[in-house]
Specification:
10 helices
Length: 215
């Protein structure tokens, strides 16, 4: 005897159902429109930031780590987590909306923090070569987008938004590896890395409240 599908499960995985809800539709359109607008304008903001001067922090931990170019494994961590996020977002509309809203809040918070906290990059920094990310940042390598780490916060947001245990384990491990690699390449100060998950978690909680569940 065939059992009826769980109604909550259908809701969670049905884009047609989600799109039929006016609240979801409005939030989805607004969130993604703002995310795409920020991505489109990132290069203007970061080109301005790159012209500013600020202090170089005396980072004890970073001073103990020799600087190496690990752009390729950094790239693998970031886009490996992003691929998982895309796959889950295709199946779960609520996850897609939550990720977009969380990323939007993280990006806005990061723009404000970088604007008000002007820093020069750490000694020994090797520019991060990521052709996909650099597409949004502009033609020049950006080195002064420091507090707080955008790469770490993006992967951490993916970790928070995913619900499947195996996905969380994979993205959690990728986030830890990424944080270590960013320090190895001296792309960020230690405080940039440590602050990223804390601030991102606050943005995630606010995003959950804004998004709420589909009724």
């Amino acid at each position: 005897m065939q059992t009826a599908p769980n109604r909550q499960s259908v809701k969670a995985t049905s884009w047609s159902y989600a799109w039929s809800q006016p609240a979801f539709r409005i939030k989805f359109i607004v969130a993604w429109a703002l995310v795409l607008s920020i991505l489109a304008g990132f290069h203007i903001f970061f080109e301005h930031i790159e012209k500013r001067e600020g202090p170089i922090l005396d980072d004890w931990l970073l001073n103990q780590i020799p600087s190496y170019n690990v752009s390729v494994p950094v790239f693998i961590c970031i886009w490996g987590a992003t691929l998982i996020a895309i796959i889950r977002s295709i199946k779960y509309p609520q996850t897609c909306l939550l990720m977009a809203t969380s990323y939007l809040l993280v990006s806005l918070t990061r723009i404000l923090s970088i604007w008000f906290i002007s820093l020069n990059p750490p000694n020994g920094l090797i520019p991060l070569v990521d052709p996909l990310t650099n597409f949004f940042y502009g033609k020049q390598y950006i080195t002064k987008d420091l507090f707080f780490s955008g790469h770490t916060s993006s992967v951490f947001i993916i970790f928070l938004c995913l619900t499947k245990r195996s996905d969380k384990i994979i993205t959690g491990v990728l986030c830890i590896i990424l944080a270590v690699l960013l320090l190895v390449q001296h792309v960020h100060y230690t405080i940039d890395i440590l602050a990223a998950p804390v601030i991102s978690y606050g943005c995630y909680l606010l995003a959950k409240w804004l998004v709420a569940e589909i009724n």
